[in-house]
Amino acid sequence: MKAIFITFFLFLHFFIANDSIAQKKYPYNITGIISKPVNTKIYLALDSGVANSQKKIIDSAAIVNGAFNLKGQTNIGMYAIFVSSNKQWKRVFVDGSKISIMMNKDSTYMAKVTGSLEMDLLEQFDKKIKPIKSIEQKLLETMLGYQKRQRTDSLNLVLPEFKATQARLYQEVKEFLTVHPNSYAALDLYDRYGKKLYSDSVIISKINAMPEKYKELGLYRSILSKHQSTLTFAVGHLFQDFELPEHIDNRLFNTKSLDGKYKLIDFWASWCVPCRNENPNLKKQYSKYQKKGFEIVSVSIDTDTLAWKRAIKEGQLPWKQVIARQKDPRISAYHIIQIPTSYLVDPKGKIIAINPRGEKLEKELAKIFNDI
């Protein structure tokens, strides 16, 4: 039976609105009305993906009789607006447009933002895909439940629907990018979904064709850097060795110790359904070719060490198992934004295949070892 593979995306980035590079300042004039008014403050901060208490504050204003006004200059980009003592925030794009906000202090994230075409485009698109994302999330929760209870047959029945739902989502993204290629929303979507739709070189070409003002953004530079770095791990390039702790005794293991052998470097996590579905095939190939000079190194990005070790035990995985966490600097060069991701490397350290799974891996190894 042909395996069905689904890719799990990792939203690991933070939006970077400001850094050491000199940028043009854009005016902002944000007025707002708050229902259930409180005599407190409203804040404008970098949208850095962290808690409000940890955000870098750009500006603040008093809320008087339920109204406020934030006015000044800052770099173009995505910012967060929030009320003090509130854990929620609302994203606002600053590009010189005059912005109006209607919000309830108890549901800041649902605030209505008007005046910014870029925000309108992004919010309209997010609203459009919300039902699809909701279905995707429910299917994912169902699959994880089946996986936890080891109900493989039930899980495989859900996988095609999950794959079809993701295909619908990616088609919506592609259509939006075709209609609005020069919008900030397009840049945001290239960051979120680009890897699934286009090759690294195509993404670089598309974002380089965007308006110059977006090239001031940290988000633009982050996307560019990520995909340029990924190109360095293309077929024919040398794989960069790393050293990470093993699961048994936490002893450091260096992939360079496997020089002279063919090796599969497999990035995965215990909660990743397609990763674990591939493990039986990896066991089959490892058993068949390990004595001929084939090794596997599985690199977990789990944050829960116990779940990682439990998954290894449940899967009875006999090859090297190391853990890196999602943001471990030792694997940052690989820009792992989706799992499973794997590299097949030859004895000289050259990458000979990317993401070989299922029948593809079986054919690659058969070709290699039948020639030896």
TrEMBL record:
Pfam families: AhpC-TSA (PF00578), DUF4369 (PF14289). InterPro entries: AhpC/TSA, DUF4369, Thioredoxin-like_sf, Thioredoxin_CS, Thioredoxin_domain, Thioredoxin_ResA/DsbE_sf. Residues 233-372 form the Thioredoxin domain. Its main location: other. The keyword Transport does not apply. GO terms for molecular function: antioxidant activity; isomerase activity; oxidoreductase activity. CDD domains: TlpA_like_family. This is Thiol-disulfide isomerase/thioredoxin. It comes from Pedobacter zeae.
